[in-house]
Amino acid sequence: MSAAPPIVAADRRVAAVAVLGSAALFGTAGTARVLLQPAAPAPGAAAARLIVGAIGLVIWAARTPEGRAALLRLWRRPVIWAMGVTVAAYQLFFFLSMSRTGVAVGTLASLALTPFMAGLLGWALREGAPGFIWLASTILAVSGVVLLTVGAGEGRDVLGIVFGLLAGASYAFYTVFGVRLAHQGEHPSHVLAASFAVSGLLLIPVFLMSGTWWMSWSALALILWLGLATTTFAYLLFGVGLRSLQPGHIATLNLAEPVFATLLGVFVLGEALGGLGALGCVLVIIGLGVLGVAEGRRGTS
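RE: above sequence
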């Protein structure tokens, strides 16, 4: 393991696009579940997603001798096990939140405060101050997500919102420590593979206790999509951001997820968006655009 190389503006532009790509894939999870297996239990679907996704990430990381050595080294580090616990917690709390409050409110509760938590935690751990541009873009994007949620008109469930906030805290933790390990020279895909393998192992009992809902072609298709597309491939894209971006910036860029999820709901599932929802989408896009332009103009760190 060696120190990470200097980061240039082009790296940040590529990283920002990659994180937005991961957000787009994350945003397909709710629609995929509705189309393929709407009755899938939230804990079982979350566990299946993590188990399959973790297998994909480990296979990708272990394809080289360097990757295999990195996995063995990382699994000896307590922080990887802590990240694995929070990855598992995020999936469970996120799916539980959506199952109680609906996709829009669950996504809001899970993601709205995450950029602030990730930015402040990263700052406290000396991963860099997020800056005023990040704060302005995050406020814009969070305001947009709030309007998106109000426009969706879905139910309010206090416990569901608490689950969402716990999901956001879990997401902030593993984002910050993933960035920290990447800055120490670990390859992001190795960090993600090692931590997701831990979470996959933890969730095997949850999957086994979730029943036989997965014994159909539609359920298997859902599991493969959630596992390989919205986890393995999405987190490989997400990992590009770990090396080049600050934790708060990554979390802010991931606020694009509810926009993609909402647009899929409108154009694929025929859901209504409304004026407030449309305004919310615009605000999120503007906020992310401001942050993306700022990342592209930053010099070498």
